[in-house]
Structure formats: C-alpha cells, structure tokens
C-alpha cells in the first residue's frame, strides 16, 4: 500500500515537473519573437502566436495558493495576464524568472501571494491595479463608453461554487473587495455597440501614430 502511494506521489511530481518544463520551453520560444513598433504592437504579436491553444478553465485553482504559470492553455483572464506579463518581460531581463515575477505582480494584490483571497479574482480590481502600476491605460471612457456602478457580489453570493471560500478568512477578504469595488464607478462598452467602438479605437491609434503620440503605455 505504501509503495502504491509513493508511486502515485512520484507520478504527480513528474507531471508537475513536465508541465513546468513545457511552459518554460514555450516561454523560450515566444520570447524570441520580434518586438513590434510599440509595446502594444508587441502584445499583439505575442497574442497571435497563441492562436489555436486550448481554452481551459480553473487552471489556477490549487491548494495551497501558489503562482501558476501555464502557457499551454488559457481562459480569457489568464490569456490576457500571460500576454501582458510576456510583453513586459520582452522589455526587461527576458528571463523566465522575470516573467514569473511580472505575472505575480499582476495576478495578486500588490504582488503578494497570501492565500486565495490575495488573488485578484475580479477583473475590475485587476484593471485598477494594472493602471495604478502604469502597465496600461483604460481608454473606455475616452471612446464614449457608458458609466455604471453595479453592486458586485457574485463570488460571495455563490460561495458554494468556490471551494476555497469555505475558509472564512478568504470569504471575508472577498467580501471586503466586493464592497470596495461596488463603491467604484467604471465604464463599459455595450456588446451591441462594440463595432462602432472598434472603429473609434482604430481612428485613435491612427491619430496617435501619425501625430506624434505613438508611445503606447502598456
């Protein structure tokens, strides 16, 4: 029985090692891609290079909480994070360690891993922290987006969907974040008007490039 358990644990360790090794190999390949004219253009180059990768949800769910680097499969959130972290790495040390550091700084509140509640689960909070750190600029309001201030409570209202929220400390942390986000107005683009806003964004990029404002804050 003991031998079976040891073999099982060894198998898990090998699978984990292989996953890490594969991610590092993918990173080494992608970091060699040529940079674009701006950081935003570099992000597009990197993003397009992942076309065809699988969509897989819940890849970050591990107990205890730890930094997960996975460049093989994504959900919409981890895709944006990974591309942005790789773009930032392109302009620094270009090492896998730098990529991990960038990813941690983006994914966790103030870059500190302190349990499940320290992860930025709501994209709104992720956006706010990224803007504060100067990683990018949200231009939704400049494009004419609609201002809203909804009450945010999905995670705390659906506690059973998140096993990690069984821990009271994590649950209370999420509730505190929801209250703070609910007090903050933000802008969004209605889906039915997205085509119009894409054209505005394209015109804005044209203007910034040809009239001396092409330096992208990404």
Briefly summarize what is shown.
The protein is built from 8 helices and 4 strands.
Descriptors:
two-stranded parallel sheet; mainly alpha; 218 residues; disordered C terminus; 4 strands
Question: What's the pLDDT, averaged over the residues?
Answer: 85
The major pleated sheet works out as: 2 strands, parallel
- Report the structural category: mainly alpha
- Principal-axes geometry comes out as globular
Uncertain spans, ≥5 residues at pLDDT below 50?
4-18, 206-218
How large, in whole angstroms, is the Cα Rg?
20 Å
Query: Helical percent range?
Result: 40-55%
How far is the first residue's CA from the last residue's CA? 54 Å
**How many separate helices?**
8
Strand percentage = under 5%
E-strand count: 4
Numbering strands along the chain, what is their spatial order in the largest sheet? 1-2
Order of helices and strands: HHEEHHHEHHEH
